[in-house]
Amino acid sequence: MRDPYQVLGVEKTASEAEIKKAFRRLAKSSHPDRNKDDPKAQDRFAELNSAYEIVGDKEKREKFDRGEIGADGKPRFQGGGFDDFQGFSSRGPRPGPGAQSFRWTNEGGGATDDDILSEILSGFSSRAGFGGRRGAGPRPQQTRTPGEDVNAAVAVTLEQIVLGEKVRAELPTGRTLEVAIPPGTRSGKQIRLRGQGWASQDGGPAGDAMVTVEFIPHPLFKVEGDNLRVDLPVTLDEAVLGAKVRVPTLGGSVTMTVPANSNGGRVMRLKGKGLPTTTGGHGDLLVALRIMLPETVDPELEALMQRWRDSNRYSVRGPEYGA
C-alpha cells in the first residue's frame, strides 16, 4: 500500500484538521457512486479510507511516524521476520548503541535460538495483550468507533407531503438518495438515515445522515399543525344569499356550500383535506371567507346600500371599539 500521506495528498506535518479536510474532499470526489463508469473507483476509495484510518487516528499516526506500523496498519515485526522487533533478529539480538554484541548458542545442549526467541516473544505478547502462548487470557473485544454523522436538508412541497412522494437528498459524502417522508413529518423535523454518514476510521459502523425536512411556502395554503388554512374570496351576494363554490385542496378542487348570511372571516372546515398524520389519517382544511366587493364602482349597488343605511342601519361594533 502507498504511503497514507501521499494517498491523502498532505504533508507529514499536516494538522488533524487539514488531514480531515483532505479526506472529506477526496471522499466526495472519488466516491464509487459518483464514478460508476470507472472500474478502479472502488479500489481508490478503499485505499483512501485505509490511509485515513492510519493518519486520521492520532495514536496510529504516531506509531506510523515512528515506524512501528506499516501503511497497512500492521506492526513492522509481523510478516517480515523479527528484524525490527526490539533489536532482535532471527539470528539473535541486535546490539543497540553502547551494547555488547552477543548471540544465543546451544553449546550446552540447552534451548535453541528459536526456542529462546519464541519464549521472549511469548512473554512480550502476554504483557502487551497480543495473546502469547503462556498466560494469555481471552482477548478483550475491540471497540469499533462509529463514523461521524452528516447533516443535510431537503425542501419539499405540500403536494409531495400529501401524495407521499420521495424527495432527493444530496449528502456531504457525495451520495444522492431518494428519501421517503414519513406521514406526520412537519417542517424542521429530522429524519435519520442509518449508515449513510462518514465511514468509520477503524472498521466500525458508518455514521448516520440527519436530514432536516423544510416545507416550501405554498401560494395558497398555510400549515397549522396537521391542518391547512386557505382564504376563499366570495362575492357580496354569495355571502348574503348563500352559494355553492369551488374550493382548492392539495388533492384537487371540491364543492363547498357557503351558508346564507355568512360574515367575512367565517371559517368553514373540510374534514380530511389537511396533511397526513402519524395515525394514518389527515388533518382538516380550514376555509376562511373573504367578502370581496366589485373592483369597479357599481351605481346600483351604491344606491341599494344608501337606501339600506337610511332605513335599516344596524350596529356591529360594541363600546369596546369606542362606539
Features:
323 residues, alpha+beta, Helix Hairpins, HSP40/DNAj peptide-binding domain, four-stranded mixed sheet, three-stranded mixed sheet, 8 helices
What does this structure look like?
This protein is α+β, with helices and mostly antiparallel strands and 323 residues long. The chain is built from eight helices and 13 strands. Strand 8 and strand 9 form a beta hairpin. The protein starts with a helix and ends in an 11-residue tail after the last helix. Keywords: Chaperone. This is DnaJ-class molecular chaperone with C-terminal Zn finger domain.
Task: Compile the SSE list and pairings.
Blueprint: H1 4-8, H2 16-30, H3 41-55, H4 58-65, E1 88-89, E2 92-93, H5 113-128, E3 150-156, H6 158-163, E4 167-170, E5 176-179, E6 190-193, E7 209-215, E8 222-224, E9 227-235, H7 236-241, E10 243-247, E11 254-258, E12 267-270, E13 285-292, H8 299-312
Parallel strand pairs: 3-7, 9-13
Antiparallel strand pairs: 1-2, 4-5, 6-7, 8-9, 10-11, 12-13
Helix pairs in contact: 2-3
Domain J: 3-68
Protein name: DnaJ-class molecular chaperone with C-terminal Zn finger domain
InterPro entries: DnaJ_C, DnaJ_domain, HSP40/DnaJ_pept-bd, J_dom_sf
